[in-house]
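User: Predict the structure for this protein chain, please.
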Amino acid sequence: MSRGGELTVGELSARSGVAVSALHFYEREGLIDARRTSGNQRRYRRDALRRVALIRIAQRVGIPLADIRGALQRLPDGRTPTQADWTRLSEGWRAELDERIHRLQQLRDDFTGCIGCGCLSLKRCALVNPGDEYGRHGDGPRRLLET
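Assistant: Here is the predicted structure, written as structure tokens:
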């Protein structure tokens, strides 16, 4: 480990499981920060590992990077999230995640046939969407969008 408990970009990459190029991207996007040595090399505080882990977890469940950035920017003095911060952040994302879970369950369980797109090409469409009833509600796969 680098001097003072700081991590080089390679060390942060190896420990976090995130590619160096992704860490550079996170830095450009204001998600993590590094100090520069006199030789212009990046040095990350060790708590950057927690920040990167939070970013990866949030991305993995589909939280947009802009939302992650906004959440991290609301932390006082750009600090690394504490357990209480993580609880608050995850609770803030709960409704969005619940909606995604619902949509994924719909795709898995309910939409093996007609989705209300108006094509009427499947036999089940005549039962589920006779005469393209869902078309009166708007464009697109109405059964998926409305339920």
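The mean pLDDT is 86.
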